[in-house]
């Protein structure tokens, strides 16, 4: 066991709770101590649901451990049934209660309740949240789907499997997938778990095939339905324009319909922009992708094939899907990162030196420390990544959302550079007068511009307060706050691969630290500031490495350009 500050997935009973919360008429009795009830906050605070999850906790205390905790659990199950009258009950133990070994499933079935009772065995110390959601859904489908149909199913009738509560954009993805199926003339029989009841699971065999949107949740159930009820399934998450077209073709083939109505209804701005001259700014930008397996693989393909980025890192925290991620990484000529320790991911990002990070909430924090633009494309995520508005990732509208998600961070970086480039211009600096025609009369009290500069620094603000009132300012020559990887087109490519990435002592890390033996001349610092901030960090690192290797004590403008020429070879 490893103690960590952050974790990508919770224990498996959280996955079971996601399935229970997504469904109607299902209640979850969880054998758990006081303190494990924190799970409610995941839905009411982050997903902002308007009702509590359908869960009853036994909430045993320390003094209860010397008594009969099994009796406490049975009483909790009885009380939950009498109060909520669900169609079905699932029972299990949290990671703490698992150590007591009270057998929740056997205890609940012994009560003889008039509804199905499904016991869950979720090994908290070997498995994680997504596995727990998958196992819970599989157990429910196996227990409630009923016998195999004797009559053939309607070929244009399907089930949608995988969406859950607290799923990353699951609600919005479902809207887009339904729209595609409607354009193809395919009817949806059951959507599960999201919005389904135990009775709805009994109608699953009526469909001709299944559509699995999220393999980490729905694959096990789909495989069971294929074996027990002869239902084939499509497992292509329609994320991106290319994947959406592949999804349409696959679903149309299963239903025996023409894919043209949905395929020709494509309404995405991503393809035309990728073909436009404006997109050359994005070409070959280095991107690092990390998240759950389905989203990581899909976003790597979108970034490389549909926008023109270069994938320099790809990984997942889901070890059960490592084969798919490794195969996709190999297609990009890199080695996949399979890790559930955010510190390992941070080290990999730092070594890859990307221009953009596509990851989870953890990578958002990592990229912020490293000064790299970032977009969240996978769970775990925070409240801002569960918008109240419609914001899918799937379908053609989802491709529009991805277009904004991937392009905007880099475009805003360009704007930031232009603002910084003109911040000391005589007409545009922070303390410039409202009109250049009245500048001398209105601002006669201002001190003259410093030597070699067009005016006061933008960091001094417009308020006209004294330096003491404004607080400490960034010193001349200090490293900029936002510094990320340097692109080849800027003339400062990555360091020699044989040397590897710079260590924090050599200038790597979240801020570029100048070596003690390298001192920047003022004119070299001013020249460095003309380089866009999103590549300035690598320029500083390469220049200091160049100077250190040649024992150059003072970095001048000539040293800066000599280093550029050296690393551009």
Automatic annotation (TrEMBL):
The entry's keywords: 4Fe-4S, ATP-binding, Bacteriochlorophyll biosynthesis, Chlorophyll biosynthesis, Iron, Iron-sulfur, Metal-binding, Nucleotide-binding, Oxidoreductase, Photosynthesis
Residues that, per the record, bind [4Fe-4S] cluster: 36
Biased composition (Pro residues): 494-504
Ranges annotated as biased composition (Basic and acidic residues): 459-477
UniProt-listed Pfam families: Oxidored_nitro (PF00148), PCP_red (PF08369)
Chain residues that bind substrate: 413-414
Boundaries of every Nitrogenase/oxidoreductase component domain copy: 12-410
GO molecular function list: 4 iron, 4 sulfur cluster binding; ATP binding; metal ion binding; oxidoreductase activity, acting on iron-sulfur proteins as donors; oxidoreductase activity, acting on the CH-CH group of donors, iron-sulfur protein as acceptor
Cofactor note as given: Binds 1 [4Fe-4S] cluster per heterodimer. The cluster is bound at the heterodimer interface by residues from both subunits.
Top class in the EC scheme: oxidoreductase
Gene3D superfamilies: 1.20.89.20, Nitrogenase molybdenum iron protein domain, Proto-chlorophyllide reductase 57 kD subunit B
UniProt record, GO biological process: light-independent bacteriochlorophyll biosynthetic process; photosynthesis, dark reaction
Catalytic center residues: 278
InterPro entries the record matches: ChlB/BchB/BchZ, LI-POR_suB-like_C, Nase/OxRdtase_comp1, P-CP_red_C, Protochl_reductB, Protochlorophyllide_Rdtase
Keyword Iron attached: yes
Keyword Transmembrane helix: no
Annotated EC: 1.3.7.7
Reaction(s) the record says it catalyses: chlorophyllide a + oxidized 2[4Fe-4S]-[ferredoxin] + 2 ADP + 2 phosphate = protochlorophyllide a + reduced 2[4Fe-4S]-[ferredoxin] + 2 ATP + 2 H2O
Chain spans, region Disordered: 439-510
Family: Belongs to the ChlB/BchB/BchZ family.
Subunit and interaction comment: Protochlorophyllide reductase is composed of three subunits; BchL, BchN and BchB. Forms a heterotetramer of two BchB and two BchN subunits.
UniProt-listed NCBIfam families: DPOR_BchB
Function field: Component of the dark-operative protochlorophyllide reductase (DPOR) that uses Mg-ATP and reduced ferredoxin to reduce ring D of protochlorophyllide (Pchlide) to form chlorophyllide a (Chlide). This reaction is light-independent. The NB-protein (BchN-BchB) is the catalytic component of the complex.
HAMAP family per record: ChlB_BchB (MF_00353)
Protein name: Light-independent protochlorophyllide reductase subunit B
Organism whose genome encodes this protein: Methylobacterium radiodurans
The encoding gene: bchB
């Amino acid at each position: 066991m490893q103690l960590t500050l952050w974790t990508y997935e919770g224990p498996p009973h959280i996955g079971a709770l996601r399935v229970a919360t997504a469904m109607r008429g299902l209640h979850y009795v969880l054998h758990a101590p006081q303190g494990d009830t924190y799970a409610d906050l995941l839905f009411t605070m982050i997903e902002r649901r308007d009702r509590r999850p359908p869960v009853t906790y036994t909430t045993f205390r320390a003094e209860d451990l010397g008594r009969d905790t099994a009796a406490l659990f049975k009483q909790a199950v009885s009380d939950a049934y009498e109060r909520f009258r669900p169609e079905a009950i699932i029972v299990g133990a949290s990671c703490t209660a698992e150590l007591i070994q009270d057998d929740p499933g056997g205890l609940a079935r012994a009560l003889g309740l008039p509804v199905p009772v499904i016991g869950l065995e979720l090994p908290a110390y070997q498995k994680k949240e997504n596995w727990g959601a998958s196992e819970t859904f599989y157990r429910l489908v196996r227990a409630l789907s009923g016998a195999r149909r004797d009559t053939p199913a309607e070929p244009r009738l399907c089930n949608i499997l995988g969406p859950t509560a607290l799923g990353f954009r699951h609600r919005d993805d479902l809207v887009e997938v339904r729209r595609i199926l409607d354009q193809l003339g395919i009817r949806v029989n059951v959507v599960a778990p999201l919005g389904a009841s135990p009775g709805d699971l009994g109608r699953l065999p009526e469909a001709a095939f299944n559509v699995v949107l999220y393999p980490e949740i729905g694959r096990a159930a789909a495989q069971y339905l294929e074996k027990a009820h002869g239902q084939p399934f499509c497992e292509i998450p329609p994320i991106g324009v290319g994947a959406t077209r592949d999804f349409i073709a696959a679903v149309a083939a299963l239903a025996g319909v023409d894919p043209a109505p949905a395929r020709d209804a494509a309404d995405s701005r991503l393809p035309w922009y990728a073909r436009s001259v404006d997109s050359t700014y994005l070409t070959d930008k280095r991107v690092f992708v990390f998240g759950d397996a389905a989203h990581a693989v899909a976003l790597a393909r979108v970034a490389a094939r549909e926008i023109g980025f270069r994938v320099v890192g790809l990984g997942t925290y889901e070890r059960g899907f490592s084969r798919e991620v490794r195969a996709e990484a190999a297609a990009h000529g890199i080695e996949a990162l399979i890790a559930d320790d955010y510190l390992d991911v941070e080290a990999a990002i730092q070594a890859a030196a990307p221009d953009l990070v596509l990851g989870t909430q953890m990578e958002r924090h990592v990229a912020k420390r490293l000064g790299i633009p970032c977009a969240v494309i996978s769970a775990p995520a925070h409240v801002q990544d569960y918008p109240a508005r419609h914001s899918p990732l799937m379908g053609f509208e989802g491709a529009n959302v991805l277009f904004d998600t991937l392009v905007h961070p880099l475009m805003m970086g360009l704007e930031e550079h232009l603002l910084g480039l003109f911040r000391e211009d005589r007409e545009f600096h922070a303390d410039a007068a409202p009109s250049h025609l009245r500048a001398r009369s209105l601002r006669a009290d201002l001190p003259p511009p410093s030597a070699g500069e067009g005016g006061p620094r933008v960091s001094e603000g417009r308020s006209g307060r004294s330096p003491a009132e404004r607080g400490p300012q960034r010193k001349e020559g200090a490293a900029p706050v936002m510094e990320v990887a340097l692109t080849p087109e800027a003339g400062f490519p990555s360091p020699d691969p044989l040397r590897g990435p710079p260590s924090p002592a050599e200038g790597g890390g979240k801020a570029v630290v100048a070596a003690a033996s390298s001192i920047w001349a003022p004119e070299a610092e001013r020249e460095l500031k003309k380089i866009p901030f999103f590549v300035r960090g690598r320029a500083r690192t390469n220049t200091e490495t160049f100077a250190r290797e040649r024992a150059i004590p003072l970095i001048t403008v000539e040293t800066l350009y000599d280093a550029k020429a050296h690393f551009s070879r």
